[in-house]
């Protein structure tokens, strides 16, 4: 199942702390499938990268997660039959 391969690759990059590579993987995956679960997974990833010791970084991570949700809403509204 290709979904399991994508998930394993994403989990690997997260475990290695390669957040930029993980973002790139999510972008590639979202270009292939626009499934709601993928949007949610991507937003959760963005929210999970928060470093509580740095308030600017925290705000940036939350903004990334918000941006993902806004893109998802826009896509889902525009693609509704």
UniProtKB/TrEMBL annotation:
<dbReference type="InterPro" id="IPR045075">
    <property type="entry name" value="Syf1-like"/>
</dbReference>
<dbReference type="Pfam" id="PF23241">
    <property type="entry name" value="HAT_PRP39_C"/>
</dbReference>
<keyword id="KW-0677">Repeat</keyword>
<dbReference type="GO" id="GO:0071007">
    <property type="term" value="C:U2-type catalytic step 2 spliceosome"/>
</dbReference>
<dbReference type="GO" id="GO:0071014">
    <property type="term" value="C:post-mRNA release spliceosomal complex"/>
</dbReference>
<keyword id="KW-0507">mRNA processing</keyword>
<dbReference type="GO" id="GO:0071011">
    <property type="term" value="C:precatalytic spliceosome"/>
</dbReference>
<protein>
    <recommendedName>
        <fullName>Crooked neck protein</fullName>
    </recommendedName>
</protein>
<dbReference type="InterPro" id="IPR011990">
    <property type="entry name" value="TPR-like_helical_dom_sf"/>
</dbReference>
<dbReference type="InterPro" id="IPR059164">
    <property type="entry name" value="HAT_PRP39_C"/>
</dbReference>
<keyword id="KW-0539">Nucleus</keyword>
<dbReference type="GO" id="GO:0000974">
    <property type="term" value="C:Prp19 complex"/>
</dbReference>
<dbReference type="GO" id="GO:0000245">
    <property type="term" value="P:spliceosomal complex assembly"/>
</dbReference>
<dbReference type="InterPro" id="IPR003107">
    <property type="entry name" value="HAT"/>
</dbReference>
<keyword id="KW-0508">mRNA splicing</keyword>
């Amino acid at each position: 199942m290709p979904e399991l391969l994508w998930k394993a690759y994403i989990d690997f990059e997260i475990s290695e702390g390669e957040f930029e590579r993980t973002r790139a993987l999510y972008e590639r995956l979202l270009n292939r499938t626009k499934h709601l679960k993928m949007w949610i997974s991507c937003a959760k990833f963005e929210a999970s990268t928060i470093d509580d010791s740095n308030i600017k970084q925290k705000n940036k991570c939350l903004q990334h997660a918000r941006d993902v949700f806004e893109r998802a809403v826009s896509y889902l509204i525009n693609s509704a039959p």
